[in-house]
Amino acid sequence: MTGLIGQNGAGKSTTFKVVLGLISFDSGSIEILGKDSTTFTPKDKELLGVVLSDSSFSGYLTIKDILPILKSLYTEFDTTKFIERLQEFQLPLEKN
């Protein structure tokens, strides 16, 4: 597990966005899990867990609305476990 701590604007979120291929970079290289990040496949990205301050999901979507999106993004998405975690944290499916 790795976390980045720093001042606002230091590049923490940008670093993770580059690793995930959400934005490109001009120079340098990033290696994760023994592999150059520019050669990451979608399957490689599924091995990473990243929490950014902004999910980019609309605030109007409910957890129930986001569930099919998550299922389409992760080949091994476990709906049962996801629902169990929602119950554990008392998050209703209809909550925005």
Describe the structure using short key phrases.
single chain; 96 residues; mainly alpha; 2 domains; two-stranded antiparallel sheet; 4 helices; globular
Question: In words, what does this structure look like?
Answer:
This protein is mainly alpha-helical. Helix content is 34%, strand content 4%. The protein folds into two domains: 1-53, no CATH class; 55-96, no CATH class. It has a two-stranded antiparallel ribbon with strand order 1-2. A hairpin with a 2-residue loop joins strand 1 and strand 2 (35-36). The longest helix has 11 residues, at 63-73.
In short:
The chain has four helices and two strands; from the N terminus they run αββααα. It is mainly alpha-helical.
Number of domains: 2
Q: Which consecutive residue ranges, at least 5 long each, have pLDDT under 50?
A: none
Number of DSSP strand runs = 2
Count of individual helical segments: 4
Strand percent estimate: under 5%
End-to-end separation in angstroms reads 29 Å
Oligomer: single chain
The assigned structural class equals: mainly alpha
Q: What share of residues is helical?
A: 25-40%
The biggest sheet, with number of strands, parallel, antiparallel or mixed sense and barrel status, is: 2 strands, antiparallel
What is the H-and-E element order? HEEHHH
Estimate the mean pLDDT confidence: 84
Task: Describe the secondary-structure layout.
Blueprint: H1 12-19, E1 31-32, E2 35-36, H2 42-45, H3 63-73, H4 79-88
Antiparallel strand pairs: 1-2
